[in-house]
Design brief:
Layout: E1 2-3, E2 6-12, H1 22-29, E3 39-44, H2 48-52, E4 57-63, E5 68-69, H3 73-87, E6 91-96, E7 99-107, E8 110-117, E9 147-150, E10 154-159, H4 168-176, E11 186-194, E12 197-204, E13 208-209, H5 214-226, E14 234-239, E15 242-248, E16 253-259
Parallel strand pairs: 2-3, 4-6, 10-11, 12-14
Antiparallel strand pairs: 1-2, 3-4, 4-5, 6-7, 7-8, 8-16, 9-10, 11-12, 12-13, 14-15, 15-16
Amino acid sequence: MHGLENHFVFVDGREAAYQPTPEESAHICNPGTGVGADQLLVVQPPTAEGAKAGAYAFMRIINIDGKDAEACGNATRCFAWLMLEETGRNDIIVETVVGPLRCQRVGHKRVSVEMGRITTQWDAIPLAQAADTLHLDVENGPLSDGVALNIGNPHVVYFVDDLDAVDMASVAPKIQNDPMFPNKVSVGVAQVVRDDYIRSIVYERPGLLTRACGSGACVAVRAAQLRGLTTRNQVTVALPAGSVDIEIDMDYSAVLTGPVEFCFSGMLPGPERDPA
């Protein structure tokens, strides 16, 4: 599946546990050797705690480097759509490592996800040391005076006057690997076009310039609010692959709404079979 060209491979690990090695994850996500994806998603039974919260399934997110990710808005929408199709429901709760996320079908292949609360507390992001997260002194080239936030995964957002003038592939890696971010960070750049319309692009962990980032869109809106660049609670964020709608609630929780698309299904070779 893909959500605004953010591609994912889903494996159902409920009846038979699926625990891929980092090498297997990288192989599957590599378009030259495997299926090709930005992340590998595993459908697992909910934990006892998740079941108490009403979760239908647990979503495990694995990055292309084989390490687990905490959150991904585009992946959650796609995951939720699969579960909604499986059950015939219009709403469902997906369990993640950062807690249960309520998801709703809001149109044809269009899903809304309650992404959770956005924080700017320095040790929750986390940063290596206490710092002003609204004016973070980590910079490179045209990117300076960032806003550090966490929405289940760490982000830093920089505002610019001309998004098209920023060469993300050359300036973002240094920031992503700055010692201030012990768990690395997704680097976002945003341009506020109108009070209700923001353009954004994100260089995601572990080092990937994606066509869309749902969690990055959420934090871009919250960062714009914190900087006084928008007074709106509902903002459209235009990403290179398309737009998503973001709503920031009174408790600073974000609701992400956007499209999903099913590509194809198939069988991955088992360990007893030679993929060649």
